[in-house]
Q: What sequence folds into this?
């Protein structure tokens, strides 16, 4: 049975049954007698995500914060999925609303298509993809094309209402009505991969045996990474130029839809699992792994830069670059500030009214430019 939960900064106040309706969570911003700042940004609001006895609610430690075209905010993480209507100041728990697909727990990705439907990738041991049709959640494979065996386990937020999937047949695009793809990299490019960078497209007519021999002489016998559709894909985005980036096993893959060209890059010092890909306001692409390493690719300069955060167990959960160029890195230890010029990093203590905030799980911006930060204690809204 779903329940109505009313929360304030002090914790759980009331519980009442709601039948089969979605769980509604009323949350109240903590009272603030002064303006607190985080990395030079005023804290506009803060929502307590711990109830009485440290009751966990779906908005606790969200790994994804997403604002849909109607202005509603969605928060997804290990504890479930919920939405927040800022105009009505109402929170709704969607974690148990899915039918025939288990509970919506362990949220990995959230996005929307051109029709305004919400899509979610969820699951712990086995990832699934579902979409919201009216007030019911449905399995994404209900919409797959007849020539596709499965939409896979990766959901990528695209541009202008498009979403992307990595199926066994290749990369697929969908706008809510029409499908595009599947797109696959030429086998020639896969077989001639090297640890620096090697780009071969469909137009390359060079003799494969000759290319392989030259690669062996120059770079040794390094095993190429498996294509994304035959391996695990840990992260993905579509950047502002329309390029698709995939963090897959032992390689970073890039697909240029406008040219149909694939490129594959090494992980540049990152661990095998590229767990996060982020595009900053300058169009640069950031990559991170689970071992406190960062890599930055500047598309304009075609240059890579790597960073070591130098903090043990500082697993990177989010990266954000503000208007002043300050790089804020969200980790389990809190926020780390990176100086790109000096390459120095320093931890930032987040103290709100005597309460230390740890466990930064997500950083996002809304359509007003405000910065939303998900933590293990609260949801914070900062002035841009």
A:
């Amino acid at each position: 049975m779903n329940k109505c939960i009313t929360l304030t900064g002090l914790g759980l106040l009331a519980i009442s049954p709601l039948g089969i309706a979605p769980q509604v969570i009323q949350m109240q911003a903590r009272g603030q007698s002064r303006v607190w700042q985080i990395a030079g940004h005023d804290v506009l609001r803060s929502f307590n995500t711990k109830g009485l006895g440290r009751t966990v609610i779906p908005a606790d430690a969200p790994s994804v914060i997403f604002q849909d075209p109607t202005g509603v905010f969605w928060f997804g993480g290990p504890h479930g999925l919920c939405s927040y209507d800022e105009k009505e100041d109402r929170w709704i728990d969607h974690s148990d609303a899915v039918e025939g697909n288990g509970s919506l727990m362990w949220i990995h990705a959230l996005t929307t298509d051109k029709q305004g439907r919400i899509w979610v990738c969820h699951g712990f041991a086995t990832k699934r993809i579902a979409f919201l049709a009216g007030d019911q959640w449905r399995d994404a494979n209900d919409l797959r094309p007849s020539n596709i065996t499965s939409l896979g386990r990766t959901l990528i937020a695209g541009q202008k209402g498009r979403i992307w999937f990595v199926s066994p047949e290749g990369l697929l695009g969908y706008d809510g009505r029409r499908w595009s793809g599947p797109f696959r990299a030429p086998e020639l490019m896969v077989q001639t991969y090297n640890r620096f960078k090697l780009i071969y497209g469909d137009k390359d007519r060079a003799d494969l045996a000759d290319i392989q021999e030259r690669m062996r002489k120059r770079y040794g016998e390094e095993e190429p990474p498996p294509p994304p559709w035959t391996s695990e894909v840990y992260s993905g985005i579509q950047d502002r130029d329309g390029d698709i980036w995939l963090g897959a096993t032992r390689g970073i893959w890039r697909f240029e839809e406008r040219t149909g060209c694939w490129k594959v890059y090494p992980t540049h010092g990152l661990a095998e699992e590229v767990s996060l890909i982020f595009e900053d306001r300058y169009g640069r692409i950031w990559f991170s792994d689970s071992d406190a390493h960062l890599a930055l690719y500047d598309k304009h300069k075609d240059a890579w830069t790597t960073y070591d955060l130098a903090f043990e167990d500082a697993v990177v959960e989010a990266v954000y670059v503000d208007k002043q160029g300050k790089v804020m890195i969200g980790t389990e230890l809190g926020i780390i500030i990176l100086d790109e010029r000096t390459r120095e990093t320093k931890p930032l203590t987040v103290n709100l009214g005597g309460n230390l905030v740890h466990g930064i799980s997500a950083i996002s911006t809304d359509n007003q430019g405000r910065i939303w930060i998900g933590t293990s204690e609260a949801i914070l809204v900062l002035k841009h």
Summary: The CA atoms of residues 141 and 162 lie 17 Å apart. The chain is about 5% helix and 45% strand. The helical segments are 187-191, 208-219. Residues 208-219 form the longest helix (12 residues).
